[in-house]
Amino acid sequence: MKILVTGGSGFIGTRLVGELLEGGHEVRILDKVPSTHYSNICQVGDVRDLKAVDMAVRGVDIVYHLAAEHRDDVRPISLYYEVNVDGTQNLANACAANGVHRFIFASSVAVYGLNAGSPSEDNPTNPFNEYSRSKLQGENVLKQWAGENPGASLTIVRPTVVFGEGNRGNVYNLVKQIASGRFIMVGNGDNRKSMAYIGNISAFFKYIGEAKLTGIKIFNYVDKPDLSMNELVGSVRNFIGKPSKRFPRLPYGLGMLGGFCFDMISTLTGKKFPISCIRVKKFCADTTVSIGALKETDFVPPYSINKGIEFFLNNEFPRD
Questions:
Q1: Three-state secondary structure readout of the chain
Q2: Nearest alpha-carbon partner for 305 in 145, 178, 231, 195
């Protein structure tokens, strides 16, 4: 197949592109930054640029849309909507104009909100920040495209937080703090987190592209079992050789007060800090989801969640 991957220079995109190429597919990338791994197939362009999008979509059989503004501290806030909604609309328009009928969209479990229990794909959505609201709007743009184009196939994948070798996101920053000895647990640590290993989520994206699904399908993606923050932190401490003694803890209220203070300083100075109210909320929340739709497929993750954590730690935090 001829495949376009937007955001193909990023963490998940790079791994997915590699898997698609290994599967014998013809791949092109559309990304606002050059690909460090696949520069020869990368078209540098922005999804907000309809001309660039139209050029990238021409002649492909399927579009994987991974490009997004996803950080917690994106400014101005309008960027979330310009990229995640308007950029998605550009892709939908280009697909309609070029006769592309298959679309796979990387959304997020954030559309369910925080402390939502373990929502399935049929549960109501309750986005809690600009990122999750813009992602849900992007989903709706594509549902409208699918409804207006007979024969269209739309698959929406809602991944949880993704970790793995080469990533510098929230999980990496957490492990780095633990390794440095500066980690402080905010809250009681009993809240549970769903996570996904990069080798599994990229394999799932490849699987659904080759499965030739029809209609509109929605999949949550996480690697089970879920871990509590205490379990995750304990596993990391054991791996890096830190003693298993108790570590400092901060009540949730004080953590939120600290986040508020950093938010105020950031507003006044324009500087970005690793601590904010939204990050404290996300850290202390239960963010688990069910994978009922995934279980109905014959997809088998290549790696267990524990093996993924082991690969990640061995690569990023090797022991002496």
A1: CEEEEECCCCHHHHHHHHHHHHCCCEEEEEECCCCCCCHHHEEECCCCCHHHHHHHHCCCCEEEECCCCCCCCCCCCHHHHHHHHHHHHHHHHHHHHHCCCEEEEECCHHHHCCCCCCCCCCCCCCCCCHHHHHHHHHHHHHHHHHHHCCCCEEEEEEECEEECCCCCCHHHHHHHHHHHCCCCEECCCCCEEEEEEHHHHHHHHHHHHHHCCCEEEEEEECEEEEEEHHHHHHHHHHHHCCCCCCCCEECHHHHHHHHHHHHHHHHHHCCCCCCCHHHHHHHHCCECCCCHHHHCCCCCCCCCHHHHHHHHHHHHCCCC
A2: 195
* Residues 68, 162: Cα–Cα separation, whole Å: 14
pLDDT digits (tens, 9 = 90+) for 105-164: 999 999 998 888 899 999 999 998 999 999 999 999 999 999 999 999 999 999 999 999
Phi, psi angles (nearest 5°) of residue 301:
-60, 135
Task: Give residue limits of the domains in the chain.
Answer: 2-171+194-228+288-312
Helix 198-211 and helix 305-316: axis angle, to 10°? Answer: 130
Architecture of the domain defined by 2-171+194-228+288-312: 3-Layer(aba) Sandwich (3.40)
Active-site residue identified among 80, 131, 197, 221: 131
Indicate if 131 belongs to the active site.
Answer: yes
- The predicted model scores a pTM of 0.90
- Please state, in angstroms and rounded to a whole number, the distance separating the CA atoms of residues 133 and 298: 31
CA–CA distances in Å: residue 22 to residues 25, 27, 176, 203: 7, 11, 32, 12
Tokens of 281: 């909320």
pLDDT tens digits, residue range 214-273?
A: 999 999 999 999 999 999 888 888 887 776 556 788 898 988 998 888 888 888 888 877
